[in-house]
Hints:
By secondary structure, the chain is an alpha+beta fold.
Amino acid sequence: MVDFVVVxxxxxxxxxxxxxxxxxxxxxxxSTPRMTKKPMETAVPQLRLLLRSIGAEEVLTACEPCxxxxxxxxxxxxxxxxxxxxxxxxAWFIHRETFDATLRRLAIKAGSVWLEAExxxxxxxxxxxxxxxxxxxITAHSALLATGSLAWTARVTGQTPGRLDALICYWARFDAxxxxxxxxxxxxxxxxxxxxxxxxxxxxVCFVTDSAEARACDPGNANNWNVExxxxxxxxxxxxxxxAKEINVAPLMIGSLPTRCGPSWAAAGDSxxxxxxxxxxxxxxxxxxxxxxxxxxxxxxxxxxxxxxxYCRWGSDLWEKFxxxxxxxxxxxxxxxxxxxxxxxxxxxxxEKIAE
Length: 356
Ligand SMILES: Cc1cc2nc3c(=O)[nH]c(=O)nc-3n(C[C@H](O)[C@H](O)[C@H](O)COP(=O)(O)OP(=O)(O)OC[C@H]3O[C@@H](n4cnc5c(N)ncnc54)[C@H](O)[C@@H]3O)c2cc1C
């Protein structure tokens, strides 16, 4: 029997595995190889400190500096929020494939057993957890759930996830080179666009919308997506007057698990709380919660139940703060666009209801 089984080997699972092993525990990570392509991400400046805290600063080789955000959110022309005054330094663009691969390599180097398999279920007994996979069956003292899926974690822990919103990201990768090292953001009547010029020879352009707008304008069709993108000021300002050939689709379910830990399990990352990419903090939060969830399990192992209460409180505070700030950001645009996408965002379940 292994001390801990970590289900899911993304940022949350790897930071948890590194934390558990640093405390001298045996760890098996069960993870499916990532099937879906991910766009370039932006992360808060605290990313460096988080990686350093788990001995994984090397992962920054998969990142590039992002010197600020140029955003036309409430105003017609973009306003630059530079990183220069940020005490934590500049933000980061993350190449997710290399980022995840480097974390995985460090977790294996630190001594975790890495099982490439899909976990279908986890059964929690009085003194052990069994994770069922399409490969081996893993028995452990406790489990750290980090599949990136609220639905999966909710199912195995017998909960119903609280859903705040469901958005969809339609994104394309251009072969282009930009001198800009900024994240560019712009709103339109039916959603919002952002451009990540993080690659040396590629640029990712993402359109975030909802299913009602998607049904109306079909942005999954490259012709429609190109027409919509060419209407934006960023496409002109950055001279991105080119056509995307392939449009990738990523669902963005935003929500939270009502309970994020139990007697022999803790959930971390998107499995516990899924944020809107508007916050540029999903990956950093996943790393952070992986560490916190791992410490909670270690403390429970040692008979200290206080950490579990603190971890749940930390998650609730994070979620409430995020939901409030998100609501304010979307509400600001609902005044400009009194119906459609923006109106739907502010008429969603209220924060009081989510906190219930
Ligand atoms: C379109 C889009 C844009 C985004 N942009 C940003 C951004 O700019 N900045 C930011 O910070 N965040 C962004 N995010 C969010 C960010 O990607 C997530 O918050 C982050 O990946 C969460 O990490 P995680 O480890 O919890 O989950 P994941 O990264 O999803 O990792 C989960 C891992 O578990 C594995 N797995 C899944 N199911 C199973 C199973 N049943 N058994 C075993 N293994 C399993 C998966 O293969 C994966 O390796 C974005 C997300 C999307 C979809």
